[in-house]
Amino acid sequence: MKRGRSGAALPVEIWVLVGAAFTIAIGFGLVAPALPQYARGFGVGVAAASAIVSAFALMRLLFAPMSGRLVQKLGERPVYLGGLLIVAVSTGACAFAQTYWQLLVLRSLGGVGSTMFTVSSLALVIRMSPPTERGRVSGVYSTSFLIGSISGPLVGGALAGLGLRAPFIIYALALLVASFIVYAALKDSPLALPEVHGETPVMTFRQALAKPEYRAVLWSNFGNGAAVFGVRMALVPLLVVEVLRYEAALAGVALTVFAAGNATVLFLSGRWSDRLGRKPFLISGTLICALGTGVLGIAPNLTWLLIASFIAGVGSGMFTPAQQAAVADIVGTGRRGGPVLAGFQMAGDLGTVLGPYVVGLLAEHLSYGYALGITGVLLASAAVAWLVVPEPLAGKPVSVVTPGPAERES
């Protein structure tokens, strides 16, 4: 079967992973809004309640290198399933936490499991994807996360009458079901065969770091984590309420408009990056996202805010699939890249952890406009970095037949 033809049917195993990603994202969106309120129920302050969220992100950041090594030693499938089970069990246990400290420990364990399945799932998707369809697959995979993230809070609102503990139980059960489906789908799959020890070379983090395109992708993912996952979630709601003096509910509208802009281009940009190369989308996408982010800070009214949010979302949707596909291009065919993928994830997580704090200080001591403008400059600097490095897709084959055992490890 030809694997490189544009528009060709993707392996069913990829669709199973896409479905699992949707389940993970919708569950995270279900739990995230309830978590701070649930923590406050133990009699702690706002800072302690926020620390529950930070602990999850911090554990993802700290455990990422170990996750990369586990993928190299054990293979993607066991690490992926182990990560899902850790998140399922720890999340379900959160519903029965009796103290704040129990909740903090359990949520931290969830961060460990999260980084395990994030690194391993990306590794699985990379080596299962036909090389000429990596951008398309990244677009599909990212879209599933996006739709799940949008749907999660909506489902959570519908289930609000069940209490604050219910989302944790529902998410845990959904993850157990997803784990079983993934296990059944990949158990006998030739595309997910475990590597034969010593036969498949490993790209180390140091080897990847020697490539200018990998250094560029680390920087752009740091900017992505800081601006899209950090600053946007932390500062936009405050901007809506404290500067524009609108109801807090409108902050959710602004975030949804960003997601809508993202969704309009996410899938197509991934597919077109397979044809035109990664750099056009990495450069233009980061610049458009930078423009939208910077303009947010000087928005005088709601209409301006929503237009800027949509523009930023379009930019993010343009560069996200190309960025993930670029990492796959760097690892290449016939090699495994657990440490490389872990480094990529760590760059984004580091931006997510540092971005809200540093930019929040700028907003507090200077202004929201200045803070969001600096965030836009950070994204624009990623575009500059991509201007001066080689095209990751350069020299890749136009058409690839069904791979042999060694090629399946790409």
Describe what you observe in this structure.
There is one protein chain. With 410 residues, the chain is mainly α. 76% of the residues lie in helices and 0% in strands. The chain folds into two domains: 10-191, Up-down Bundle (Growth Hormone, Chain: A); 200-394 and 406-410, Growth Hormone, Chain: A, CATH 1.20.1250.20. It has helices at 12-31, 34-40, 46-74, 76-94, 100-128, 134-158, 166-186, 205-209, 212-243, 249-276, 279-296, 302-331, 338-365, 368-387. Helix 4 runs antiparallel to helix 7 (166-186), helix 6 (134-158) packs across helix 12 (302-331) and helix 9 packs antiparallel against helix 14. The chain is globular, with a radius of gyration of 21 Å. It starts with 11 loop residues before the first helix and ends in a 23-residue tail after the last helix.
Number of helices: 14
Strand content: under 5%
Number of domains: 2
Roughly how many Å apart are the termini? 18 Å
Low-confidence stretches: 1-6, 395-410
CATH-derived architecture of the largest domain: Up-down Bundle
- Helix residue percentage: over 70%
What structural class results from the helix and strand content? mainly alpha
CATH superfamily of the largest domain: MFS general substrate transporter like domains
H/E series: HHHHHHHHHHHHHH
Q: What summary fits the major beta sheet? A: none
Name a few traits of the molecule.
2 domains; Growth Hormone, Chain: A; 410 residues; mainly alpha; 14 helices; disordered N terminus
